[in-house]
Amino acid sequence: MTAEAVGDRPVARETAQRTIDVDGRAITLGADRLAQPLAETLRAAGVTSVKLPCGEGTCGGCTVLLDGAPVAACVTPSARAAGLRVRTAASVTAAGPGATLAAELARRGALQCGFCIPGIVCSSAALLEQRGDLDAATVRAALAGHLCRCTGYEGIVDAVLRAAAGTPGAAATRQDGRGKADGSLRYSADQVPDALVGLLLTSRGPHAHVTVEPGDALDVPGAVAVFGPGDAPARRFCTNPHVDDPVLAPAENAVFAAEARYVGDIVGLVVAETAHAAREMAARVRQVEEPLPAARTVAEALADGAARVQRARTDLPGNVAVELAFGADEAAVSAALAAAPVTHTSTVEILPGPIAALERPAALATWDDGRCTVWSTSQTPQVVRRRLAGLLGLDAATVDLRPVPLGGGFGLKEEMFLEPAAALASRGCGGRPVRVEPTRAQLGRLRRRHAGTITITSGCAEDGAVLARDVRVVLDAGGEVGHSGLVLENLLLLATSLYPVAVGRAAGRAVLTNTTSSAAFRGYGASEITFALETHLDDLARRFGSDPVEFRRRHVLRAGQVDPVNSWVVASLAVDECLDALAAAGDATAALPPGQTAAGEEPGRWRRGSGMSMFAIVTAASSAVHKDSARARCRVGAAGIVVETVVPDMGQGIHSTLAAVAAEQLGLPAERVVLCQAAAAAAPADEGTFASRGVYLTGNAVAEAAHRLTAAAEHRLGWPGGTLRWTNDGAIRADAVDAPAVPWSELVGLVAEAGVIAEDNGLVVGAQRVDVAVDAWTGRLRVERVVSVHDVGRVLEPALARGQVVGGVLQGIGVATTEQARHDGGVPLDVHLFDQAIPTMALAPEIQAVFVGDGAARGRLGAKGLGEAPMVGVPAAIANAVRDATGVRLTTWPMTPERVLAALEDPARSPSRAANAPAPP
Ligand code: FES
Ligand code: FES
User: Rounded to whole angstroms, how far apart are CA atoms 670 and 648?
Assistant: First the structure.
């Protein structure tokens, strides 16, 4: 065992040094380390098996075993570990129950992004070492302090139980599973361990001119540099990197803002040798803010004479940044509604919430000989590469983004907002690597989910047939346009696609306010419009005395019909199968009937009911004016086939799925194919991982590349087309041709690349039934069961698909019932992970995943995407279930106990309408 020193200053040995045994390696502390968090000390010593999701003691992701007892290393002083034995996931999984647990977790369906897993492994191993006879309740209790944003916890609990029982699961192991379980997988934070620490400087007021001077920050030992607005290049950029459009994605950001547009806007950066020194520097920087008039709500932003949220946007007449309309003209819709025998109008309000992937977004940059290399948590590496080069005035060939796994993304990592700061800082520090990662609280002030109001009016015939529909939307963009234009566009398009009407229109606007910038989130636009539309339809069905399933069946779009938005013939849409499966599954799993009381409950206290909703999402970013595309490469490697893509895996298992696609197309077992995420500069062109496009776009590109590889091999060998067979014994054989088998080694290096262009948006449909219990005394809302049905065309990886559904449904429950990102006077309140209230194990209900499909989706695979779908319809189904249980229509998410109780006590008083909610456009 060797001892390594970790500390900032030399001090007397007898008082200053302590030793910690970390996974069998001795780490000696300097005195200045003793008060620092143990997690920082370990990571500074290169221990990457300890992750730091929150750094606030909330998530359990940094858990290590301190002399056998689980502790959160981010809030444990290093001094507490002096002289003790620290075990991380690395040693815990090396042998014994921990090794069994790691094997179980590595299976598909048990884990996803893996960022929470090393901490969970440590707590679980402690439990397994104490006792072997575990049940689910015991495991849940032991892991109650751990947060996982991806899995819905089901796979984790199952893995612990299997490890305890010694009954291995049946699902195959993920390619990245073992590294996630033992903590050895190197995320962005684990690259270049000796990188300088870049700590963001952020604004304190909702709208202000800001100057940043070093003050005496550079006197701090370990200080390296201070950057402020004066160090930013003149070029501006949009954090939404997808489109070149001055309206949808305007160049509105400086790298460091001189005009801060919300509390928490990025105004500068301090760079230091250590995190501790960076914090000290940030406290000493002279940051002066000159307040400007602010519009803190949508109502204020739309008022006459409102303060301008972005004073530099002289192209805007006010604070309405984006205004879009689709469908019939307004006069035609008004006339159709006026002529309809029955009209119904409803309004919902979406309150902002956190995005909350457990891995925070981060960027690490370094320069060498005029070339910039970035390790970024980006979901879109090639897009960011292009944008970053443009911003820095460089040829794209001199910028590269290196591949890293993502610890979750859920849309936030589509944005480019840290890479420019890291690149500038590194260049300013002589090319030394600089790593920029916001603290959890900074992230809570920087980004949130969209808020808004949606009003729908339907005009119906006497028999309930919907004749006309008008949809009006106001989104709160926050201080930047960012993704708001695309979120609004997606929302409006989906408003008119699933239930076509003869005369329909969807119009809306995204309004700038001096509040936290709104960012992309899983199913953006889709979940918001689904909440509005499916609660509206539920009320319509009641009004006409229709069964809710049959009412939807009567109006929904079907395969073979024309997509009313894009005029495409819909290739695949198994709506009737979805509704049939929902009805059948619902009957089989009916909750306690309404009005009945469960054992142990006070009579009359809990009210039970069921609700359903349908939804549609797109799985390709194609539209009438843009066609989404992807490329992939397959090559023959020494040990098997290698699939190359630039698409990152953010936990959904797309890498395992792409490898399985190639294996299926080549007729090989999955273990014969490995997936390699290539650097952005070298990889085939592909926009990345977002909008559930991985299978539909990149998957089909991989399938095509696999076929081309076979054709290329046949050509090389002079065999007729369609005769070559790859075999698992490492040889290539020809069917119906008199040719000797050829060893794979003769073809090593053979490459084929292929691309696909989506001719439609791969519309996916699904439905869910939710059973709830509502506590009439407290307003507590408990989701007891969910049946979640999805048409994905064809299911490629059942275990991964189920994992996506379970995790997505729990995320939908969180969005609908607990998660929040409130503001007060422009000041964000819920900036810490604890306050944001993402679901714990305690909230996870029984979830049944059902897959249907016609396998008729375009492309070789006959499959569509799934990633975003499972959460999209859940809030609407919960609201409909509450209506069923209580007779009260809740129209605001999140449906917190306060709102539920207020509605129960006074249904006439709308608990959902915020005082400042604006009138629809
Ligand atoms: S990182 Fe320590 S509890 Fe979250
Ligand atoms: S797998 Fe738990 S946070 Fe992603």
Answer: 19
Task: Give the residue, out of 41, 48, 62, 840, with the most ligand 1 atoms within 8 A of its beta carbon, to mutate for a pocket test.
Answer: 62
The atom number, within ligand 1, closest to the CA of 75 reads 2
Classify domain 629-757 by CATH number.
3.30.365.10
The CATH architecture that domain 299-351+453-508 belongs to is 2-Layer Sandwich (3.30)
How many Å apart are CA 310 and CA 317, to the nearest integer?
11
Please check whether residue 787 is in contact with residue 586, taking contact to mean a CB–CB distance below 8 angstroms: yes
Q: What is the pLDDT of residues 421-472, one digit of tens each?
A: 999 999 999 999 999 999 999 999 999 999 999 999 999 999 999 999 999 9
Q: Give the number of whichever ligand sits closest to the CA of residue 54.
A: 1
Q: Whose CA is nearest to atom 3 of ligand 1?
A: 57
- The two structure tokens encoding residue 474: 């106001």
Does 2.30.29.30 match the CATH number of domain 91-184?
A: no
Angle, helices 96-105 vs 154-165, to 10°: value is: 140
For ligand 2, what atom is nearest to the CA of residue 150? 4
Tell me the C-alpha distance between 372 and 389, whole Å: 9
Mean pLDDT on 486-491: 94
Mean pLDDT for the chain overall: 92
pLDDT digits (tens, 9 = 90+) for 171-220: 888 889 999 999 999 999 999 989 999 999 999 999 999 999 999 999 99
**CB of 118 sitting under 6 A from ligand 1:** no
Q: Quick: pLDDT tens for 21-34.
A: 999 999 998 888 88
93 CB contacts (<8 Å, ≥6 apart)? 99, 101, 102, 121, 125, 181, 182, 183
Closest CA to 104 of 4, 20, 175, 171: 171
CA 828 to ligand 1 centroid distance, Å: 21
In ligand 2, the atom with minimum distance to the C-alpha of 651 is 4
Topology alike, domains 91-184 and 629-757: no
pLDDT of residue 361: 97
Q: Count CB neighbours of 79 within 10 A.
A: 17
Q: Whole-angstrom Cα distance, residue 861 to residue 858?
A: 8
Do 296 and 514 meet the contact criterion of CB atoms below 8 Å apart? yes
Instruction: Report, as an integer, the average pLDDT of 605-612.
Output: 93
Ligand 2 contacts (CB < 6 A) are 111-116, 148-151, 358, 408, 651
d(CA 789, CA 767): 5
Residue 212 in contact with ligand 1 by CB distance below 6 A: no
What amino acid occupies position 577? Answer: E
Spacing of C-alpha 692 from chain mean position: 11
Nearest ligand, measured from the Cα of 440: 1
Mean pLDDT within 767-787: 95
**Per-residue model confidence as pLDDT tens digits over 501-544:** 999 999 999 999 999 999 999 988 999 999 999 999 999 999 99
pLDDT of residue 399: 96
List pLDDT tens digits, range 800-828: 999 999 999 999 999 999 999 999 999 99
Does residue 829 have a pLDDT over 90?
yes
Q: Is 52 in the pocket of ligand 1 (CB under 6 A)?
A: yes
Q: What are the residue boundaries of the structural domains of the chain, listed by start?
A: 3-87, 91-184, 196-296+355-446, 299-351+453-508, 571-617+763-905, 629-757
The correct answer on CATH 3.30.365.10 for the domain covering 571-617+763-905 is yes
| CATH T-level assignment (fold) for domain 3-87 | Ubiquitin-like (UB roll) (3.10.20)
CATH of domain 196-296+355-446: 3.30.365.10
Give the number of other Cβ atoms within 10 Å of residue 913's Cβ: 14
Residue nearest to ligand 2 atom 4, measured at CA:
113
Q: Does residue 58 line the site of ligand 1, with CB under 6 A?
A: yes
Q: Has residue 765 got a pLDDT over 80?
A: yes
Q: Per-residue pLDDT tens for 221-263?
A: 999 999 999 999 999 999 998 888 999 999 999 999 999 999 9
